[in-house]
Design goal:
It contains 36 helices and 22 strands. With 829 residues, the protein is of the alpha/beta class. Strands 12-11-10-17-16-13-15-14 form an 8-stranded mixed β-sheet, sandwiched between helices. Strands 5-6-4-7-8-3-9 form a 7-stranded parallel β-sheet. A hairpin with a 5-residue loop joins strand 20 and strand 21. The protein is globular, with a radius of gyration of 28 Å. The C terminus is likely disordered. It comes from Arcobacter defluvii. Keywords: ATP-binding, Helicase, Hydrolase, Nucleotide-binding.
């Protein structure tokens, strides 16, 4: 919404008749016949304004909103039919005809029905005119770099598939870069179904000098492949490309991947995919890039926004008029949620602890449901009898967050998708990184650190288009998805309304916030402006430190592209490349100390050390005060290293439940030994703790387990989240140092494989690289099934008929873990 549109709509809102009619339409209050004519006339006027000047896109959105609301409220679909046919919203036109929502069909309507079939994409769905034209343009033109900007569920997957098919030559090397491991297998299965006759790689170590392949990677795996092998990507798909704008380390890695690939192959194609980029030139990593924009401007979903206030009042927001309309009240927020729930409801909170708290509170106020006991039994058997969610399931509630073990999170998402009686999912933004869920209603209980774009992305998850148009029923009401902002004292900011965040949604045009200093569009002058604007001394100091950190980061990035002359240069580059430099405060001086340590290793003593003691010897001992990451610094203590040595060994072989029980017993042992303060990080920490070498650490990152010595239920659930925390620490922090020692030949193949994979067997290692967990492979080995599995020449995991029979006789949780990677259509007869 540009300023002229905003001003005109605001001025129009001063007209009392317009205001009254728009309030009634917004609130679904019955209009008189005269008011119906009036409001449809308003829509026609705005359509004419748009016809005269196409830059007034908000006018057509407003006209569409009026017509959509009117048609659904009064079940008079002729205005919506005419609008959709005229403006190319063909899925709506087809749905109206398919469900016989018009009173009388003319010959013209029959012809329109036939013509719309031209926009049918592979008998899967009807495209809008924008979708069709952009899809056609992308496949016919030969652009080098492309940005496909479209709302969620507007055909991103089909773009990837069709683009790959267009360029599917015998020597093409394609990378599909996704932001999370959760999306790896989802994208892999999408491409596997297309039978592209290409090697599909899920891990950089699956690469075997392939002449041609399709790699479904995270940016970390893609960079490792480029660094270790003399290879490049001819085509790079960057999924969720708006992540490039963020200030975190993964955004730096993503821009580094693009830049490095362009260095190796300057004419490689890059396809950026996102619903949230406003200015495509902000995606550039170099000033020579020319990115062609392909944008879908119109979203045929228009959310209805409600706000529950802490005083019990409820109001509805109309983003076009900018008005809040009173619509009722509720005695408390739980009553409000219950009264406004639909079939599948998503409740958003940021912090994992709050997610669990809300899920439990919500469940306490809901009736029990039936038909869920088999799922509870499976979770009791495979996770634990005292897992919080087992109790919540009886009320149709689940929760997920990033501190749940991945396999539990993925299984619960799958069950929420497939079991109708599971009505509520409470989660944080981790929901954006998993499978697409059938959400038809959203309650937002906290907007802390949610930008306008984050909110838009969340809201886009409600009523995906495939849930509206792929069924033979009238689901057009889902084009008006309901979003509820729920203010509470428990979960929101004290005395804080969400009105400011809601009002920011008035416009669908949100400025890109460029926080990644390795992008061309990053504004370095803004750093100086922040320093100048700072009035308080502490704010000025903070701004100065921020500038220093960014300058250092950019200097390190530039250093990577300089020619290495000495071994020290190579070591320094390695640290920067693998983010090991971020573990230390004074990197330049610290890297010199580490370099000397490596040169002075006493081999006879070195070979006798455990792997974790080797990490301590090189990367911690004597430089403790230079370490910036406290979680890693804890390895200076021998008991901590002992704990992780045992934990890593057990976690490879044990089942999930065995690992939970072992950690539970370890908690009880610590309580008994009067050593009950246990590190949990900021997400779950309850108390700060000072040590002899690290005093004054004020953030609550420890939990005193003794506080829960008589509450086994609490300890079990702390053990469950701690498992994921430990796996994250090992995978994303500790293993960086293991990789470094392996690359520098400081540890043997045996040490490396046993630590990373828990085995030395080549077949088991290959299956782990494919994505199967080491504990799952151990279980399959115990069931004598590994011989019935193999990976074919195209990277597909295949099985024989014996394995098919085996799958029919195992429990659902076990089967789910396997079928993520193998489908019944791939059978070796």
């Amino acid at each position: 919404m540009n300023q002229a549109e905003k001003t005109n709509l605001t001025n129009l809102g001063k007209n009392q008749k317009f205001n009254d009619v728009m309030e009634k339409l917004t609130k679904n209050i019955q209009l008189t016949e005269e008011e119906k004519t009036y409001v449809l006339t308003i829509a026609l006027i705005f359509l004419r304004y748009y016809d005269n000047d196409k830059k007034f896109t908000t006018y057509i959105e407003f006209a569409y909103y009026i017509i959509l609301k009117y048609s659904i409220q009064y079940q008079d679909y002729k205005p919506l039919y005419d609008f959709s046919t005229e403006f190319g919203f063909f899925p709506i036109t087809k749905n109206i005809l398919l469900n016989k929502l018009l009173d009388n069909l003319s010959i013209k309507d029959i012809l329109i029905d036939s013509e719309i079939d031209f926009y049918n994409y592979k008998d899967q769905y009807i495209q809008t005119i924008e979708q069709f034209d952009i899809h056609k343009n992308l496949l016919e033109e030969n652009f080098q770099d492309i940005a496909f900007i479209a709302p969620t569920s507007y055909g991103k997957s089909s773009i990837i598939v069709d683009f790959i098919k267009k360029y599917n030559t015998d020597d093409i090397k394609i990378g599909v870069i996704v932001p999370s491991k959760s999306l790896l297998i989802q994208t892999f299965n999408l491409l596997k179904k297309e039978d592209l006759e290409k090697r599909l790689l899920l891990h950089d170590e699956m690469y075997d000098n392939d002449k041609s392949f399709i790699a479904i990677f995270t940016q970390e795996r893609a960079l490792r492949l480029l660094k270790k092998k003399d290879v490049y990507f001819d085509i790079l798909f960057i999924d969720e490309a708006h992540n490039l704008f963020k200030k975190d380390s993964r955004s730096i890695l993503l821009s580094r991947l693009i830049k490095r690939n362009l260095q190796s192959k300057s004419d490689s194609k890059i396809i950026y995919l996102s619903p949230l980029v406003q200015e495509i030139n902000n995606l550039k990593v170099g000033n020579t890039q020319v990115i062609n924009e392909q944008r879908i401007h119109f979203n045929i979903k228009e959310p209805e926004i409600f706000e529950y206030l802490t005083n019990g009042n409820i109001r509805q927001y109309n983003r076009f008029t900018g008005q809040f309309y009173e619509v009722g009240n509720s005695s408390n927020y739980l009553e409000y949620i219950n009264n406004n729930s639909l079939t599948k409801n998503f409740l958003y909170l940021k912090r994992p602890k709050m997610v669990e708290q809300l899920a439990n509170t919500l469940a306490d106020n809901l009736p029990e449901i039936k038909g869920i006991q088999s799922l509870i039994n499976i979770l009791n058997e495979n996770v634990h009898e005292e897992f919080y969610i087992s109790k919540l399931l009886t009320k149709g509630v689940i929760y997920i967050h990033g501190k749940l073990p991945d396999i539990i999170k993925e299984y619960l998402e799958y069950k929420f998708k497939t079991i109708t009686s599971l009505k509520y999912i409470v989660a944080n933004t981790v929901i954006l990184e998993g499978i697409n869920l059938p959400i038809d209603n959203m309650f937002i209980l906290n907007v802390h650190e949610l930008s306008e774009k984050d909110l838009t992305n969340l809201i886009g998850r409600i009523n995906r288009l495939d849930t509206i148009f792929t069924s033979n029923s009238n689901n057009l009401y889902k084009l008006l998805p309901k979003v509820h902002f729920v203010n509470t004292d428990e979960y929101g900011r004290k005395n804080g309304k969400m009105q400011t965040s809601i009002e920011k949604l008035r416009s669908k045009i949100f400025k890109d916030k460029i926080q990644n200093p390795t992008l061309e569009s990053f504004d370095f002058d803004e750093l100086d402006k922040k320093i100048e604007k700072a009035k308080k001394e502490k704010d000025k100091e903070s701004a100065i430190k921020m500038k220093e950190r960014i300058i250092e980061l950019v200097a390190n990035e530039n250093y990577l592209y300089q020619k290495s002359i000495t071994e020290f240069d190579k070591l320094k580059k390695y640290f920067i490349e693998n983010e090991l430099n971020t573990f230390y405060k004074n990197f330049d001086s610290t890297i010199e100390k580490i370099s000397l340590k490596i040169q002075n290793i006493n081999l006879s003593e070195w070979q006798q050390k455990r792997l974790l003691d080797k990490i301590y010897s090189i990367f911690i001992e004597g430089i403790e005060n230079d370490i910036s990451k406290y979680e890693f610094k804890r390895l200076e203590f021998e008991p901590t290293r002992n704990y992780y040595s045992v934990y890593i060994d057990r976690s490879h072989q044990n089942t999930l439940k065995e690992n939970i029980n072992h950690l539970f017993e370890y908690f009880k042992k610590r309580i008994k030994e009067k050593n009950s303060e246990f590190y949990f990080g900021e997400s779950y920490g309850e108390i700060p703790k000072s040590t002899s070498s690290y005093t004054g650490y004020s953030k609550p990152v420890y939990v005193d387990l003794a506080k829960y010595k008589d509450d086994s239920n609490k300890l079990i659930n702390l053990a469950i989240v701690k498992l994921q925390m430990e796996d994250n620490f090992i995978s994303y922090k500790l293993n960086k140092f293991v990789e470094m020692m392996y690359d520098y030949k400081l540890i043997t193949d045996e040490e490396y494989n046993l630590h990373i994979y828990g085995t030395e067997k080549p077949k088991n290692i290959n299956l782990i690289k494919f994505g199967l967990s080491s504990s799952l492979i151990s279980k399959l080995d115990a069931d004598e099934q590994l011989g019935n599995l193999y990976i074919d020449d195209y990277g597909n995991l295949r099985c024989n008929n014996l394995f098919e029979n085996f799958l029919e006789n195992i429990d659902d949780f076990y089967k789910f873990q396997i079928e993520k990677y193998i489908s019944k259509g791939f059978v070796n007869e």
